[in-house]
UniProtKB/TrEMBL annotation:
The keyword Membrane applies. This is Aminotriazole resistance protein. Keywords: Membrane, Transmembrane, Transmembrane helix. It comes from Xaviernesmea oryzae. The lineage of its organism: Bacteria, Pseudomonadati, Pseudomonadota, Alphaproteobacteria, Hyphomicrobiales. The chain crosses the membrane at residues 12-33, 39-60, 67-84, 90-107, 119-143, 149-173.
Length: 190
């Protein structure tokens, strides 16, 4: 497998901030409208784009990954009609934001060689942070009386963890190559 890294340049400092907000909006829209498999119709879909916050976190920076996950969740919940202020703004938003933050902290393209071992570590990181996220979100939904904990844990786990564990390591290298093509001089991560 090819080893790839991204050097940090002095490029435009605004680029990663703008890209994280654009990625957050795209994430929310994709989660709301591009999930063909309904696990619980109208409420829980198989989020085939759940890999976006971890990839944004890894490539653009941990803050960007958090913004992508947090704002993506808010956009999705508003578009899907599932916005619950205490749950969406606090528990769901923050926990999904962490699915972008944690991989972004652990895997910096300027310091990481993306070989097979790294891709396995990325998948394991997505699994662990996904399990924590799903447990917190399921607990919040159970506390609010919306779904039983284990029921929510199972369906949300299928919805989010599977695409993160498979999609993030599978797509991080192609996304890195696209990003390097667009910004050959590099940029500061955010």
């Amino acid at each position: 497998m090819q080893s790839t890294s991204l050097s940090e340049g002095e490029g435009n400092a605004l680029f990663p901030i703008v890209l994280s907000v654009v990625a957050a909006a795209a994430t929310g829209v994709l989660w709301a409208y591009a999930n063909p498999i309904q696990l619980v119709p109208g409420v829980i879909q198989w989020r085939i784009f759940a890999f976006l916050p971890p990839i944004v976190g890894i490539l653009i920076g941990w803050r960007s990954g958090f913004i992508c996950g947090y704002l993506g969740t808010i956009v999705w919940s508003l578009l899907a009609g599932t916005f619950i202020p205490a749950h969406s703004l606090i528990v769901d938003g923050i926990m999904v934001g962490l699915t972008g933050l944690v991989p972004g902290l652990l895997f910096d393209p300027a310091k990481t060689s993306f070989n097979k071992a790294t891709l396995v570590r990325i998948a394991l990181t997505c699994l662990l942070v996904g399990l924590v996220m799903v447990a917190a979100v399921a607990a919040s939904l159970a506390y609010l009386g919306i779904f039983p904990f284990w029921w929510a844990f199972g369906y949300i786990g299928l919805s989010d963890i599977v695409p993160m564990v498979i999609g993030t390591p599978l797509l991080v290298l192609p996304a890195l190559k696209i990003l390097k093509s667009a910004h050959p001089a590099g940029f500061k991560r955010f």
